[in-house]
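Lecture 7, part B: from sequences to assemblies.

Below are the input chains for today's worked example.
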Amino acid sequence: MILEILTKRYPGLRAWLLQRLTGLVIAIYSIGFFVRLLVLQPNSFEAWHAFFDPCWLRIATLLMWISLSEHAWLGVRDVLKDYVPNVRVRTVLTKLVAIVLWLYLAWAVWLLYSL
Amino acid sequence: MAKKMKFSIYRFNPDIDKKPYMQDYDIELEDSDQMLLDALLRIKDFDDTLSLRKSCREGVCGSDSMNINGKNGLACVTKLSDLEEPVVLRPMPGLPVIRDLVVDMTQFFEHYNSVKPYLINNDAPPETERLQSPEERAKLDGLYECILCGACTTSCPSFWWNPETFVGPAGLMQAYRFMSDSRDQALEERLENLEAPDRLYRCHNIMNCVDVCPKKLNPSLAIAKIKDLKIKEAAHTKAASPARKLFGIKRL
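Predicted structure of the full complex, as structure tokens:
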């Protein structure tokens, strides 16, 4: 059902639902993250490394970053649609936001899997 | 006891004025002048060039909606005793001004008409009326009372920024009024009609519409219910489901 709604058949519903689903992922991850933070309380590089060591946490963190990027993209795109009436300027700003979000995502992947 | 009140009113006559300006009035009111509309008519006694719309004088026709001290409302149901002085009156924002407090509501009614605000039922007309149970009829409460004054739509920032595409709270509430009518048979088409990204989903729950509605209605709730209906409808639409074909699955 969810996959169907997220197809191009429902362009309005898709964006609206995606924003909520990604928001839900971010909220659940944040709660879990802070609980783990309170329990383990890492205070050194090694401790932080061990904190992110489990594979499931890296996958969850990656999922959260993807959700965050999508959530931010949908939100900022709406703000630009509202406040930047000039189509050319808006196109440039929209592309800039997309590039920045992709860079952040790539950075997050590098941090998660290279360190 | 007669009382003086100060008003500052937006004036613009496109035939004479190059740009709009605010005109101050210091008016002596009669004891019978209780509502803002009474005061405006008193002002017109002194200055008959002031233009405004009015009709029923009791909050039913929705003609005299305007921006009162920064908030949209109906002049005829706004008590003078509730207003801070000087009372600043402007036309409703977001629509072209025809003259003074009179705005061109063409776009507002185009959006209203776009949701087909009438019953669609292809069955043969019955001998008498189309019956509803009391429960079915109750679903229309809080929706049918809208007087189309435009106060909600013109106080909505989403409408200000997307006036050509966003239907606006008044139009969307009327769309839901017919979606929830047990006698209507066009639910699917009505939902499809609102699928374009900017028609329904530009609503970001700012809630100005709820704040200003002179009939105390809740367009924001109606919009949320349309979104719920859209999810339910999409979940039940089995035809042309690309995801199912692509993944070969029955249900996720």
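Note for the exam: The radius of gyration of chain A is 17 Å. Keep this in mind when comparing with the next example.
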